Amino acid sequence: MGTKDIFRTTFLFLFFSWAFTSCSKDRVNRDNELLYWSSNNGGEIQFSNWAVDRWNSAHPDNLLKYQPVPEGQSSEEIILAAVVAKTTPDIYSNIWQGTVEFYSTAGILVALDTLEGFIDFIQQRCDPATILEITSGDGHIYQVPWKINPIMTIYNKRLLAEMGLDTLPQTYAAYMDAAKRFKKDTDGDGYVDQWFGNTSVKLAWYQRLFNFYPLYLAASGGMPLIKDNRANFNNEYAIGAFRFLQELYRENYFSKQDQSAGQDLFVAEKYATKFTGPWEIQYLDRFKREGFEYGFYPMPVPDDHEGPIYTYCDPKSIVIFNTCSNPQLAFEFVKTMVSEEGDLEFLRTTNQLPRRKGLDSIPDFQAFFSQNPQLQVFAQQAKHVKGVDNCEVLTEVFDIISQEYEACVLYQIKTPEEAIADAERAVNVLLRVKN
Amino acid sequence: MSAPRKKRNPLRRTVLPYFVVSPYLIHLLLFVLFPVVFSIVLTFHKWNIISPMEYVGVDNFLRLFQDRLFWKAILNTLLFLVVHIPLQIVVALTLAYFLTQKLFIRGFFRASFFLPVVISGVVVTILWQQLYGMESGVINRVLTSLGLGRVEWLTNWRIAMISIAIMATWKNVGLYVILFLVGLQTVPISYYEAADVEGATAWQKFRYITLPAINPTIFMVVILSTIGGFSLFIEPYIMTGGGPLNSTLSAMLYIYKQAFEYYHMGYSATLGLFFALLIMLVVVVQKFTIESDD
Lengths: 435, 294
What we know:
The complex is a heterodimer.
Chain A: H1 3-22, E1 34-38, H2 42-58, E2 64-68, H3 75-85, E3 91-96, H4 97-105, H5 118-125, H6 128-134, E4 144-148, E5 152-156, H7 157-162, H8 172-182, H9 212-220, E6 226-227, E7 230-231, H10 236-250, E8 273-276, H11 279-287, E9 294-297, E10 311-312, E11 316-320, H12 327-337, H13 340-350, E12 353-354, H14 363-371, H15 373-381, E13 385-386, H16 394-410, H17 416-434
Parallel strand pairs in A: 1-2, 1-3, 10-13
Antiparallel strand pairs in A: 3-11, 4-11, 4-12, 5-8, 5-9, 6-7
Chain B: H1 10-42, E1 45-46, E2 54-55, H2 59-66, H3 68-100, H4 106-118, H5 121-131, H6 138-145, H7 160-185, H8 189-198, H9 202-213, H10 215-230, H11 234-239, H12 251-260, H13 265-293
Antiparallel strand pairs in B: 1-2
Helix pairs in contact in B: 1-13, 2-13, 3-7, 3-10, 3-12, 4-7, 7-10, 10-13, 12-13
């Protein structure tokens, strides 16, 4: 072997050695600094930088490192990949409440209620109903409720005023009546081109979180879908919500057009209402025409409904992974991040609501809401919101409901009673098999 | 006088070849063999990625045979193939035939037909989603302007899969046009000249000269379309999510959902293994059928 060959072989050996050792998980060593990941949207990055800078300047001996969650198809996929590769951050915000049980059952989250000061902290931040909602099946709490985006009905003020409505169509009957009057074929081509509303017709399980589920919570006063490890939704409220939506589609009061296919028909004033969250405010500020006025009101409810109107709030939480070397310190950071001052800063930078009790009665918050009246409606709704049930197979539960939703609501090949009964049966089989 | 032969290092003769092929060998072991073996192991386990694996014997296989949705997905995929493959062959062969003629700006047409092949599948799918839109879609607007009725391209369960097959044909036809062009150009002109002397019609020339001559190309197109069709995923994933009423749920989409929505890794691996064997079987049957016809 010549000198050249020896050099070549040595070079290749060193290159491959370097390449393989670079893949080692030991490379994740972070010099004992805690690592915090947030979501990667602009507002949350800005807020997280603010929170981390504030912490680091007050705690020079316990510096925190921050980065947004790496880019990927979805943050859920990135977190799962990080869990599998054991490269999770110490702290992660923006985890959907529905996935926490999946991770906690696998034992990769820190039980926060075992940390000093957590119980006092959570009781101060959340009302008992929220604490009960976030308590895992094993009795521990693995998440800090962080933010919510309640689902409400948005309406076009001009269109409803032109219909001569004295009050907003809050009940199923009123909504249906208004829808009947609004539906129109404006160009006379024989096809309806003006509908009272729209909601996603896609089969994806999570779409039911934004139509059926908030209607169910509104009608039932916030009843869970799963109770004592069995389906709890074969009742008048779920059947009523299915029937309500089924009629909207059967009578062509709701368009089957997918919202992503083409122009936004709410902005184009072809829809008078739709079900949406507070993110719509910033979106409309950018895309609405001059003089376009809109408002929000709670989800429609059955005609005989009494009491507060609940809705789904799309809750996101903060968790600490069990790879964290100092969970108590991580919790101390989380406490400062979601303090009253932190939540107010969060509200200002992101226009999303913190999940804390008495949101609209804290003086500093009141000042903000008085300048942002559209968001104030959501803050008032925040008193009556629900997240999701703590269920390890929640995705599959919603997938089953979605299959029945499609068969009943969109294609009318099942009655609401049949669809809900079939969904109940399938969910019970699923929950039994899981155990 | 010839120069003395250089003495070869025996180590170099024995080790160097292995060293040279090692990058590919490492790639093969890490990214092909290991996943195959691992997925076979997975078929006997229940695993949700983050919890330890649990041995379940042949439970996953038993479940597969009782899983109605999986069989529906297989039937949907077969329906897609039944529409897509003949359509692909007819359209590609017709276009290829015309492109062999002396056309004005023929090169431009050849490039145009190939363009969709190199565009990302996701982009094409989103584009067609806009075209297929019920109310604001371009196709329905054209139909209504012609006084024809609107079509529920993606929201009618009877035609949603056919709509996807049409789109997939548009996307892939360019590749098969090229293959047929090559095939057509290998047919000797003397055959056609002889047929002309005998007074053969255009159809007779196509039926008795062109078709037998390009049979190997047709076989290749059928095999490639079948394998490509069985892997139908992006189109239903983006356009319909498998709906309406599971009518566009392809086998690949179902396997994906089991793995990455429900984290049923063991069951998903079982479906994948079964599906791979099915594709193999279909391709072998196609091969024997076409060869026996030949």
